[in-house]
Design goal:
The protein has 339 residues and is of the alpha/beta class. It contains 16 helices and 13 strands. Strands 7-6-8-5-9 form a 5-stranded mixed sheet. A 4-stranded mixed sheet has the order 2-1-3-11, with helices on both faces. Helix 2 runs antiparallel to helix 12 and helix 3 runs parallel beside helix 4.
């Protein structure tokens, strides 16, 4: 399917959903453009917010939920998709929307924690019993271990996975940029398949039963284990990245629609006790300390670093690692060329 046909399809689906919502008697609608791995969480959060909004204002709201990989959603918004808010997987994608003046450049300062109401990290999902004895990052590059990941050219989750691996290799004792490049080359050399999205990688590993280990969003791995506890288990590495999926109001859209108050409340409610509990119950790590303490037994402690500990901003990360000719292309091309 071409990008144009995807855009047309989403436009048509959004229009149909609006019609359904209006026919169902909703006073207004709100559209949230999100990435693939949040589908289950927002299926729970949206009705909770609608109840809160109805009790507070007397107004009923129908929430139109759109899911695709994060960079596609940013592109769709930049090309006119009328999303009131975005809840994406990497800050770079919101910055891309801001560069086209759909979102204010100070979007990170509008909400707590840099407009990140919850966070995740990168872990390993393995088959029950861990037959390949995967314990930490070095085990992923052993001979004979088949790794499943998504592609950082298309998947926000894969960018976090790539940075987690890079950060581990760079920051370990004796680590250098050269040794980190070598680690990534060996990791991608063990890669069974690079899927388009994080959810696609889950489908390959879980449903098609390919690979020995999946490098995964923590929340995605938890969802798989919750569904198939007899088949899979999570291995938490010694160190990983703080994966910070950002949220933002699309200023240009809400000002045209007159929906700013609703859109801002929708994102602010993610920081409420109920919003944080819903995120935690869907295996995102809450930022509210009180809610985090209630779920502390759910999450294994590990050493975490932030992307900004490696580079000053996501523009630098993108240029160095993910743009054409960057480190990902260099190490992956080496793998494909057999060098």
């Amino acid at each position: 399917m071409t990008c144009l046909s995807k855009g047309l399809l989403r436009t048509v689906l959004a229009a149909l959903l609006i019609c359904v919502a209006v026919a169902a008697g909703a006073d207004t609608t709100l559209t949230n453009a999100s990435y693939t791995a949040t589908k289950e969480m927002f299926a729970a959060y949206n009705p909770a917010f609608a109840r809160y909004w109805k009790a507070k204002t007397g107004e009923s709201v129908a929430i139109i939920q759109s899911h695709a990989n994060s960079s596609t959603q940013a592109s769709l918004v930049n090309n006119g998709m009328a999303a009131d808010v975005v809840t994406l997987s990497v800050p770079l994608d919101v910055d891309e929307i801001a560069s086209n003046h759909f979102v204010s450049e100070n979007w990170k300062q509008r909400l707590p924690q840099g407009s990140t109401p919850y966070y995740s990290t990168i872990v390993f999902l393995v088959h029950k019993g861990n037959p390949k004895s995967i314990k930490d990052w070095p085990d992923l590059v052993r001979w004979g271990v088949q790794v499943v990941m998504s592609n950082p050219k298309s998947s926000g989750g894969a960018r976090w996975s790539h940075l987690a691996a890079w950060g581990y290799a760079l920051r370990k004792p004796g680590g250098t940029e050269a040794s980190a490049r070598d680690y990534l080359k060996r990791l991608y050399n063990n890669n069974k398949v690079l899927e388009y999205t994080a959810r696609g990688a889950s489908n390959t590993f879980v449903n098609r039963k390919e690979g020995d280990v999946m490098v995964s969003w923590e929340n995605e791995a938890f969802q798989v284990v919750a569904q198939y506890p007899e088949l899979f288990q999570i291995v938490v590495p010694s160190v990983s990245v703080v994966a910070e999926p950002p949220v933002a109001v699309i200023d240009k859209v809400v000002d045209q629609r007159g929906s700013r108050k609703l859109a801002e409340a929708y994102l602010q409610y993610l920081y409420s006790a109920e919003g944080q509990s819903i995120a935690a119950s869907h295996f995102y790590r809450p930022t509210d300390p009180a809610v985090a303490s209630q779920y502390e037994k759910q999450f294994t402690p590990l050493k975490l670093f932030k992307a900004v500990d490696l580079y000053k901003d996501w523009q630098t990360i993108d240029r160095v690692h993910f743009q054409d000719g960057g480190i990902f292309d260099q190490v992956y091309d080496q793998y494909r060329n057999g060098s």
